[in-house]
Write a structure and sequence with these properties.
Molybdenum Cofactor Biosythetic Enzyme, Chain A; 6-stranded mixed beta sheet; homodimer; Molybdopterin biosynthesis moea protein, domain 2; alpha/beta
Amino acid sequence: MVQLFQVVTVPEAWAKLWPHVEGVSGAIQRIPLVEALGRVLAQDVISPTDVPGFARSTVDGYAVKAKDTFGASESLPALITVTGEVLMGKAADKMLAPGEGVRISTGGMLPPGSDAAVMIEYTEELDSTTVTVLRPVAPGENVIQAGEDVRTGELVLPKGWQLRPQDLGVLAGVGVAEVRVAAQPKVGIISTGDEIIRPDQVPLPGQVRDINSYTLYGLVQECGGVGKLYRIIPDCFDELRQQVEEALAENDLVVISGGSSVGTRDATARVMEALGEPGVLIHGVSVRPGKPTILGMIGKKPVVGLPGHPVSAMVIFDLFIKPMLWHFQGLRRGKPEAAVRARVSCNVASGPGREDHVRVCLEDRMGKLWAVPVLGKAGLITTMVRADGIFRIPLDKEGVMEGEYVNVRLF
Amino acid sequence: MVQLFQVVTVPEAWAKLWPHVEGVSGAIQRIPLVEALGRVLAQDVISPTDVPGFARSTVDGYAVKAKDTFGASESLPALITVTGEVLMGKAADKMLAPGEGVRISTGGMLPPGSDAAVMIEYTEELDSTTVTVLRPVAPGENVIQAGEDVRTGELVLPKGWQLRPQDLGVLAGVGVAEVRVAAQPKVGIISTGDEIIRPDQVPLPGQVRDINSYTLYGLVQECGGVGKLYRIIPDCFDELRQQVEEALAENDLVVISGGSSVGTRDATARVMEALGEPGVLIHGVSVRPGKPTILGMIGKKPVVGLPGHPVSAMVIFDLFIKPMLWHFQGLRRGKPEAAVRARVSCNVASGPGREDHVRVCLEDRMGKLWAVPVLGKAGLITTMVRADGIFRIPLDKEGVMEGEYVNVRLF
């Protein structure tokens, strides 16, 4: 028989879960740079090279010795002898003598002996080999030095970094055409419940279409994972056991989702107990909505029995599954979350020892942002569709008062 | 010859560009629901059905007539005759008589004649056919009514809505297994410049690896588009013309990127003029960084000659290409952006008639958030890697003062 579990708080649940999850890490793979957006680096990237490899001009004009321009002005310009032109993409190897300059374009290589670039706007061509310089430049002015962007041996990006567009750019710049990243965690999504049917089926009285599997599939994708939808299983121990076993073999984490009935919950817990150690770790979490949650592990793979109500399932995903999926990927620095501070439009009660997640719409009232709680049961997915975000009332608070500031996570 | 253009402000640039872009919209495609995360709905979705299709219990307990429990208390409980059980997924069609109740699980269908559900916690079983109810329930209590989540004929989600996980859920719930969405805009990315080489090549003196194409590829992906990288073209009119022509045939928008030299800029503008009407619309935008931008259209397809400096290219992408890509997809309500208000740590000057985009790192100083400008030239991609975000100094401001609040877009 399934042992009896006590409802625990979210921190208590994590305290029980973490020792089993901490040592689990996902696979690593090598992928082309262009496929790497949003992926998490599996190793430090150290630059094997200086970027740029040479001093470059940041302007169109003339590469010069800065000291040849010192004191130059419109009334007393400096004279520079133009000895040639730097071709883009070519080495500028002719040493500049005092009083000499060469034509250069933005991005061109500064020739040896030059240490600054004069903008063409501040020069006048006297004849084909002489220009006047109307303003002085300092050494290094209008120049990107060799290694100024990235130095050889420098840490370009650390392990655990989620790659953004500019990160792809810098990796390309240091010559990383393939990148070692965490594999995308695979998540098996099993829908269960005698009343649940597929979206393409027509419900008979008593039946409802599967909502949660599709929401979960999207949530998994947002956390860098890849979902796999399995078929819908009735409230039957043997069928569910067989399906969970198959899903465990094919995935890094298995979510059992769908129905909300006693039968579904019983079958889920019994299957988790039957399939291996440590089995069920947590049965019931004091979070609203989301209480009837079952968390367990089969070996190194978490199995989560999600509550049947769509809002509860989303809250529990956010509290437990999302952190696990990022942990498997070794994430240390990810995308910033969209969030705003807003004042709550009415009193919202919570209970001591329980955390509440409150769906809200945002309203601008005379320039101030207000979070207006969305009324509606946790069984209604449309409350999450209508809401602009969600805020949390932590364990130790018994509610928030009208006008109090809260942090609303936007979606 | 290429006509001479005046540098214009960002609003002026949009005023010139918009009439050419306004009428352009991308293709529409039908895709499976599970592939639709982040995509933009191409039509209003009206529900063909009620969700749920019947009144459901939100608790485990008994479906009853509420009035049979009125006045019930622990000292004077109501007596209910249990006539059976609602099976999950089955029609509950036996009419409830006064004084009767049936066992029901969360999600079960309320039988005709019942209008509420009593939680099992507030009942006691007297014998196999009788329970006492210790608390009254109101009509509708612990029940989700038929159509309470979605009503037949209701607008579930509007055209132009970017799909989130919960939106996939509600679409599944109303039976939408395939969804009509905007096709992903195709963006051809052409790198040009005599000094530019591929990331997998080893630079000789004067050469640098292509950074911008990879950053752009990621930015396009973030805007729901699909990038295609073409080969690197030298500063040669004929080769560039041929490549842009090919890219125009295969894409909805073409970006010419890479080099920063005069030669690259000239070739880009000349190619845009040569390929068709209206050709170059804007040559130079008063934004820092990002001034040497070329915006044009060949027929209904925008062609953008981006500045060569990586930071400039990103700023211009954000100001012009991103809005175009979302416009092609018909986006009206997208993902919220991550942003924070922070105080600027030092005076930052701007010029009148120019907008500035300032890279910053965020620092928490005694509980207050400060935006610390990242020093470094626009040619350094690492300034965008190190920065936490960017803020804008609009046209009409000549700078921001130390301590002033700004809105930092996070990345």
